[in-house]
Amino acid sequence: MRRIGQKAVLAAAMAMGLAGCATAQEAPAAPPTPVEAVDPFIGTAGKGHTFPGAVAPFGMVQLSPDTDHRFFRQSYDWAAGYRYDDPTILGFSHTHFSGTGHSDLGDVLLTPISGEVKWDPGQADQPGSGYRSRYNKASEVAEPGYYAVSLTDSGVRAELTAGTRVGLHRYSFPRSAPARLLLDFRSSIYDYPGKVLWSRIRLHPDGTVTGFRETRGWAPGRQLYFAMRFSRPVVGYELRNREEDVPYNGFRQPGRDTTDRAQVQGRALEAAFDFGPIVGPLLVKVAVSSVDEAGAIANLESEGAGFDFDRTRAATRAAWQDALSVVEIEAPEDMRTSLYTALYHSLIAPSVHSDADGRWRGPDQQVHRSDFTVHSTFSLWDTFRAQHPLLTLVAPPERNADMVNSLLAAQRVSPYGILPVWSFHGQETWTMIGYHAVPVIADAYLKGVPGIDGAAALDAMVASATYRPYGGLGDYMDLGYVPIDREPEAASKTVEYAYDDWTIARMAERLGRGEVQALFDRRAGNWRNTFDPETRFVRARLADGSFREPFDPTAINYGSDYTEGNAWQYSWFVPHDPAGLIAAMGGDAATVEKLDAMFEFDNTGLDYSHAEDIAGLIGQYIHGNEPSHHAAYMYAFAGAPWRTQGRLKQIVDSQYRAAPDGLSGNDDVGQMSAWLMFTAMGFYPVAPGSSQYVLGRPFADRIALNLHNGRRFTVTAEGLSDENLYVRSVTLNGQPLTRSWIGHEEIMAGGTLHFVMGAEPNTTWGAPAGARPYSMSAHAMFGR
Amino acid sequence: MRRIGQKAVLAAAMAMGLAGCATAQEAPAAPPTPVEAVDPFIGTAGKGHTFPGAVAPFGMVQLSPDTDHRFFRQSYDWAAGYRYDDPTILGFSHTHFSGTGHSDLGDVLLTPISGEVKWDPGQADQPGSGYRSRYNKASEVAEPGYYAVSLTDSGVRAELTAGTRVGLHRYSFPRSAPARLLLDFRSSIYDYPGKVLWSRIRLHPDGTVTGFRETRGWAPGRQLYFAMRFSRPVVGYELRNREEDVPYNGFRQPGRDTTDRAQVQGRALEAAFDFGPIVGPLLVKVAVSSVDEAGAIANLESEGAGFDFDRTRAATRAAWQDALSVVEIEAPEDMRTSLYTALYHSLIAPSVHSDADGRWRGPDQQVHRSDFTVHSTFSLWDTFRAQHPLLTLVAPPERNADMVNSLLAAQRVSPYGILPVWSFHGQETWTMIGYHAVPVIADAYLKGVPGIDGAAALDAMVASATYRPYGGLGDYMDLGYVPIDREPEAASKTVEYAYDDWTIARMAERLGRGEVQALFDRRAGNWRNTFDPETRFVRARLADGSFREPFDPTAINYGSDYTEGNAWQYSWFVPHDPAGLIAAMGGDAATVEKLDAMFEFDNTGLDYSHAEDIAGLIGQYIHGNEPSHHAAYMYAFAGAPWRTQGRLKQIVDSQYRAAPDGLSGNDDVGQMSAWLMFTAMGFYPVAPGSSQYVLGRPFADRIALNLHNGRRFTVTAEGLSDENLYVRSVTLNGQPLTRSWIGHEEIMAGGTLHFVMGAEPNTTWGAPAGARPYSMSAHAMFGR
């Protein structure tokens, strides 16, 4: 069943599906399969920044329509190249981020053209002014691994599918018109003049088109190679360099006529291919590579020869069905759609980065070869929180091992000897803060992901945590905090470093490396050095030890004391020592009171429109950005899990909808989605690196995890409804569970976690000190 | 003995050398060895465009001082980076062309600094305004494989040597001053804004520095990698990006501080390294690669570990001694210096291009691997004439085979499927005209260079000669000439294509490929289609068959009817059918008259200063550029070899001197020098691809070729003097030689060619029709 992505249309489609079942003797309709339940349009309007196009699970190619490639400072809303409400489509490009707040990519933009070739995109509000086309919104179909749309200007039906390393286009042209294809190699997401440093397009004698471009975008100096083949012979072609070449003094260059040659080089290249009038569709197969053109050709050939669009589509659909079926969800239709789409969005990246032959380009820009599948696109500041912990539960162990080993491989060849910060296509962008590859590795290793060399991993983690030039780390190591007069966003950095350090201590503890453990357990306490006991806020300190004045806990500015946030959000970022934080806050009651103050803050008069990532506000709680994501669970540490439950209901209701504008903030490569998946299951990894998940409350009647160890862990919710928003009681495998947390080993052992829901809170459940997360004897946390 | 490159100083040094021999009981001083006889300063002033620095025979690294990197249209005179009369030195860079008329390279410019680091070169006329330094002219030493100079601003004695793939610097700093080294990675020869597309410098933990840059210079999109190591630890370093980076909207980039990181990327990079005050020299070892940084590191390690400057210097000196000793020269001092320097300049390029591991970057910009040593820097329009034929005689057969196989390998991976036109570092520049790789291959194959697959070579030659989009070839194939209304420089292209085609026919004949032979023998006659029987000039024709009017045989303009020349020079370019040309000219007398008219043309009122390559004029004969190079030998075909002899004396006397400004035009990667070497031996390859050399007259008392087949071929000149400029008689192995040519097989068989010289011409020797070159029965030419 094709899903069309608008709630109303979805309902209509559902009705049609039921109508189609009428012959089945009025048996109750089976719910949509997991693949059918996904709506890739969720997040493509509003602030979600997701893309609707075709991608395989963790696929290297993300083949998706682009409605605009905006220039520089206007680019934020077009980070995925597509906005649901845009009236025209530029074409279809092969690389996209899912949900980022900054962007790049949009490589190898192809547009089918049925008449005269227009070489520039033209204006969206002037039909026919360029190669961009209007399209029929009702014709748009998006499913996992498949996208289709009818372009009204050219009369072309465009269909897209993707394997892991290939994208396939199927274009059905109007009869008798010449079938043509334009490649605009100037174009990219986050476009600006000078972004393309150098590029090349070449038509080989066998009809293969290859190319290369190096861009200085979000990643400086990113190299991208592609290979492309057509199902029909090229009967004419034109390669253009749209930029006047530098004239050389005194020399004729007889071969530099770029219009009749099989190769062009330059900074503003385009190519048009003519297939003549054709009957039946034109298929186009494209692969990309970070390595070289030979790598792209090998990738092109790695998933079968020929042009069997339907076979690739079916294979990728089956891969998605396998990946999504790890989680069985019973929930009302909208919630089920939201959850399967959230799971889908959690399984798009980190993306496969190495070529079919194992070669990949590293942060040193050199080519390396590995015997595992190297992944990239690590949005670690976001994804260490819930997306990677979710993958540890739902993705195959080999995939998780590949990701960790990809981080370690990147560290080995890093020019700085450190783990990735925010990297894609192998390249470091230095975006956001912290060394959050560290908790990702620690969490995976401590949770038993096989195939990780723990000792080598610990060395890499320590190297990252002691690289003095990075983000004030030298001062952090000397002073115990990052001083704001020497390094921006010092308060956020200090608390995030302290948490990362705690995960290093846990790895060291497991590995019996006492000195490392002691050092990093000490550093884990550094959050105290930036906590102001007077205001009870995390605050930035100067090198002389004083807190920076003036202090406004509601101020949000880039490069200020905090990273995309303020004191309200960052004062809760001590996920590894909530007991210490609660004591510093003045005890349980003061903590609950402060959390409530955050959620209920009156924002009248505040304007955060200058800070693009600040979205999804509930008072000073900001669900659209990551620093808040664990905050609602902090009540549980203060003995008030019923307050967590209420807040979760408030957040889920207000921040997620099964609609294109249904995400309140950037999906951030699956983190927003992974938060919802965990929360819906009734537990959340507040401190990855810990073995404990904090219990919240479920949002589905039943969710079963078909774990990769062959066991099944099921969460059931009895009496769940909008009114019954509180947890009355919990059992684990039939035995009462009086604590507000569950251990990773308990999940992996399989069993059933049963919540009984009710309209009134149970204020005693989970309230005693011994029932709270992290409160048990040391062995309850990894390595303790 | 160190040579200082000025005639007067040379003489003084010679006198000192003799003085030093006084103890040897007044025995006559042995002449300088071949290596000692070379003066690398010849050609570094005037129009020669040679460089004085350190290079091994055909070495990948050309490590040489740069006195200026001029901007764009001012760059012509600084094509080799160095001008003898410049007052300051910028530093020492690792890649240089020898004698080109257009330029690029000057990669990895290093400058030793003994105090405060200045980051810009400053002005030559303002001492201290930048990092460039004045130098003591008398301190400058240049020998094959070695260069030294004393920099007066920094007080540093700088010495350079080079192996095949490494450059070694030895810097002796003044005591107590900090020893520092600046790398200006922005800088290059033929500099202009935007030339560096992207670059990277990285300091590895082990102290190795690597880097990359991609430039769009003469070669578009050239990639260069380097690796560098120091003999002393770096105690401080600074990596700078001199260009403001593009600000990104909304994202902090905490790691982008470029001053304290181990890697910088960008378009305007510099690095400074501090070694502190040191006693004893700092040694710096640098290797380059077209492949990647790992390739550069492997090249760095390929010629021995450590920093033994003197060992590398001695090894390269020995390699030069071997290469130069193939030719034994007895001649007056100045002529001997000119000749050994000419031989030296003939053995610098084509340069080794593949890495030590066999990998290389091709014209498709992809990395390939070969099991032979791939060479590049093919200035084919120049070097097909005499430089490659000279290498066939004096370089090892394996070296010649490597060069031919490099051309064939380039064709195999060419985006256009054609042989190189003018390529360096593997990249095609499309400079000049013709497909002159064809005669290079044909000449080598027909002369028996082993290790060439003739059938594959012929296929590659035919592919190049039938690639319709190139230089009017489509029209040439259809019309029998290149029409000037569709393609510039049509007259020159037509005659050069016709000659190249003749060499294809000879290859085909040898290989028994009758149809190919017939086709290209027919095309070889196409010169007639652009010869005007009325004016008896080669002229450009329109597509309608008419000659273009107005016609001025003295006009020289870029992109006009001719290539860097006019009708006077180009009307002689039928080297493969001089008999046909002479007939078209109206017979022997008319030909001699027209040749005389060219040499004796009164140029009053003509100004060719706009055409940079037009230098070395004798009337309308232009020795400083290649189209004239065979012209003096054309008299011999008209039965007047004594006129050839006279003209050669006139040319050698006026166009060559053993002085920095001693070359009348660009050395053109050895072609000007190879002309002198052949001419001095008394014979010249007028039509490479033929087995015959035309006899001129010798310019040395004795020259012996120690052939690589173990035989020796000696040319002796009896009674040679300025007055005795004519050949009276010739014997070969003691038998009278009455013809004015000698066969390649006769040379390779070894023996003695003896000229008896006199003041009066012998107008009967070589005059009869049967005594002229190409006049004997078919077997006298290859394959006939």
3D architecture notes:
The structure is a homodimer of 784-residue chains. The radius of gyration of chain A is 26 Å and the shape is globular. In chain A, the strands form eleven sheets. Chain A has a nine-stranded antiparallel sheet. In chain A, strand 1 and strand 2 (62-66) form a beta hairpin. In chain A, helix 9 (437-446) packs antiparallel against helix 10 (454-465), helix 9 packs parallel to helix 12 (490-511) and helix 10 packs antiparallel against helix 12 (490-511). Chain A starts with 6 loop residues before the first helix and ends in a 26-residue tail after the last strand. The model of chain A is unreliable at 1-24 and 249-259 (pLDDT under 50). The first copy, chain A, is 26% helix and 21% strand. Chain A has 784 residues and is an alpha+beta fold. Among the domains of chain A are: 1-30; 38-320, Distorted Sandwich (Beta-galactosidase, Chain A, domain 5). At the A-B interface, strand 12 and strand 16 of A face strand 12 and strand 16 of B. Chains A, B: Residues 38-289 form the Glycosyl hydrolase family 92 N-terminal domain. Chains A, B: Residues 1-24 form the signal peptide.
